[in-house]
Amino acid sequence: MMILNLSTISRVDGEQQVPCYFIFGDSLLDNGNNNALQTKVKANYLPYGIDFPAGPTGRFSNGRNIADITAELLGFVEYIPSFATASGREILKGVNYASGGAGIRDETGQNLGTVISFSKQLLNHKTTVSRIVSLLGDEKSTEKNLSKCIYTVGIGSNDYINNYLMAQFYPTSRLHMPDQYAALLIEQYSQQLKTLYSYGARKVALFGIGPIGCTPGNIAAYDTNGSLCVDFINKAVQEFNTRLKTLVDNLNHNLQDAKFIYVNVYGISSGPLAGLRGPNPCCSVANIANNSGILTCIPFSPPCPVRALEVFYDATHPTEAANLVVAGRSYVSLLPSDTLPIDIRQLARL
What we know:
By secondary structure, the chain is α/β, with parallel strands linked by helices. It has helices at residues 2-7, 9-13, 66-73, 118-136, 139-146, 158-164, 172-175, 178-198, 216-221, 231-254, 265-270, 320-331, 344-349, and strands at residues 21-25, 150-154, 203-207, 259-263, 339-340. 38% of the residues lie in helices and 6% in strands.
């Protein structure tokens, strides 16, 4: 019932609420930017997209991802195009830069091939802003327009999954304790977000890291010691999330007209997701216990029949049903702890 209610929120608000929507992040938000890259992180084949109108597009789910649902809730008639395909005047409605495997750190995800790091996504956005200036005619109009837009950033999971937890490829876990690593990530993230601000972003929703110790991939790869999840991984990402909340406060205090919010993905995902069941993947995943970072569906393998009841589509990515809950509660918070200090709907109205 909650999922049905969330999916109709946008009908209440009616018209498009902001002029544009820009998306940065990893595979939870990617809508096709990895399709042409030399990488193992791809989702442009069945069974991905089995419930999406356009079929497999590069979205790491059976259907819509969080960015798609957020765009609907904000009143957009069409989904925001990927940077790989966006052209002409359609960039005025926004662009999705997210790349599967990407992280805050530039080296994150490189064990899987080419990915577009957050730093590179920001450079791509700089290119887009230059194109918008050309389309609108001057920088002042562009600045005014961009200040009204919504920006969402969901990044950091791969800095653990495809970096810190991959000692065979990366030295970070040997060099830093979890609290030190979280502090390093936040320091770099802070500088990157200030760059985004310098490109005109004013209304920014930062998605925290979810309980990645509870994904089928990590449960299969690590000993849970009788717990439901891999507790040391969840504890490590909570070090990051705690600092991210503080960063939001600091950015709002120190940057003029900045309106950053924190989305508590960990908290939203830790409760019962509207009756959904887990933690098994809906599709078949090869060598799930190998901790190789490749946690995607075997191409063309048949997925589970009742996808609307599952949390995980593959060994790490959520189903559309789970995405509906997270996107819905980030748009209109169900609990005061879902978003801080306000939710995305309120952010859009500012």
